[in-house]
Amino acid sequence: MTFDAAAVRAEFPMLNGHASGHMAGHRGDQPLHYLDSAAMAQVPGAVIDAITRHETTTRANVRRGVYGLAERATEAYEDARRAVGRYLHADPEGVVFTPGGTAALNLVATAFGETLDAGDEIVISELEHHSNIVPWQMLRERRGVVVKWFPVSDEGRLDLAPLGNLITKKCKLVSVTHASNVTGAVSFVSPIVGAAHAVGAKVLLDGCQAAIHGPVDVPALGADFYVTSGHKMFGPTGVGVLWGRPELLAALPPFLGGGEMIERVTMERTTYADPPRRFEAGTPPVSQVIG
Ligand SMILES: Cc1ncc(COP(=O)(O)O)c(C=O)c1O
Tell me: the pLDDT tens digits for 193-235? Predict the structure, then answer.
């Protein structure tokens, strides 16, 4: 099979002359050559059409109305959740929509972090995106957890040599990249998952760079949490996904408080909805409704 670059280019309005003359340093007589998809992919016309279709035929708030439009918007939102579940080969009840990869990682650091005590250990790596470093350092400030690091090998991969020293009985979570945004290396996760689960720790894989390369089999990887980012997967901005094992999510406290994440609100106390709704406070952007 040959790669038909012209046919692929034709799918993307940005690559079809629309950017000519607008970009500093871009020569208007040449088509745009875009090489920064790891930071943000361009969107195909089909995605732009889906946004327009939603805004012109189905625009209503999700899960808030009992009239036709609102029910259709809610159905689209839940269809998007099922589609993500299929892509990850995972239970759609574990799919939580977030505003992006960063928000998904902060959700885990805050909600899962609430369940930790001083001295508990989190293992990350020197190969992580800042979004998978800083939230754990902030948690260290708040709760006194210990953050430990996998080093990077000369080849730019996670160096698993110190695995036994890093993942001890005090370890509660290992949070590492599934594919590095620095070197592109795909992590060999099975020894990490084995060692973590052997001491009762959970594993989060940051799939922001990996998930674009094809469906991901999260159960086969053995991850307890998996994070992706929509704008790196030909989607609009404003959407990311946290997948978590449903029974694990059910044991976590909420992240943001507000509408739609509640079961019952009184002046004395509020009870929270079951996941995934517990973690989806507020009105989702159109990018989450179209998935
Ligand atoms: C590996 C990795 N993790 C997390 C993120 C953050 O994702 P977002 O831009 O959706 O917040 C990125 C984005 O560059 C990334 O490459």
Answer: 999 999 999 999 999 999 999 999 999 999 999 999 999 999 9
pLDDT score for 290: 79
Task: Note whether 4 and 137 are same-domain residues.
Answer: no
CB 288 less than 6 A from any atom of ligand 1: no
* 220 in the same domain as 125: yes
For residue 129 and ligand 1, the question of a CB distance below 6 A is answered with: yes
210 and 268, same domain (yes or no)? yes
Q: Which of 49-53, 63-67, 267-271 has the lowest mean pLDDT?
A: 63-67
Same domain, 74 and 110: yes
With a CB cutoff of 8 Å and minimum separation 6, the contacts of 219 are 89, 90
pLDDT at residue 17 greater than cutoff 80: no
Question: Quick check: CB of 235 below 6 Å from ligand 1?
Answer: no
In the block, tokens 């079961």 appear at 263
| Domain annotation covers residue 254 | yes
**CATH number where 284 lies:** 3.40.640.10
Q: Pull the structure tokens for residue 269.
A: 């106390």
To test the pocket of ligand 1, the residue of 40, 107, 178, 208 to mutate (highest count of ligand atoms within 8 Å of its CB) is 208
Which is more confident, 179 or 19?
179
Does 135 sit in the ligand 1 pocket, CB within 6 Å? no
SS3 string, 156-205, reads: CCECCCCHHHHCCCCEEEEEEECECCCCCCECCCHHHHHHHHHCCCEEEE
Task: Specify the pLDDT at position 287.
Answer: 82
